[in-house]
Amino acid sequence: MKRDPLAKSKIWQQHIQAAESFDGSVQDYCDKHGLGSGSFYQWRKKLKLSKNNNGSSTSGFLPVVVSSLESMEKRSSIASLPDPRWAAEFVAHLLGRLQ
Hints:
Order of helices and strands: HHHEEHH
Helix content: 55-70%
Distance between the termini: 62 Å
Largest sheet: 2 strands, antiparallel
Radius of gyration: 26 Å
Structural class: mainly alpha
């Protein structure tokens, strides 16, 4: 059975955070917890953990904001699209240059 990738990344994120406050080296931490140091460094790079202003660690991911379909429809309308004639003129111009 495969492990959930999100759960695996969360486990590694916890190890990386714990290693930051560990009194020994990364190798010592990995040895104590049965981790490969190469895997540790790969996961640390993959997760791109960085300190923010309040001292807690966060991953390099940005939050996703989901909008409702209604709010998207209110923000966009056919009237806000550019006049399609410019595209036709542009294509005609390009075709004229090719001949």
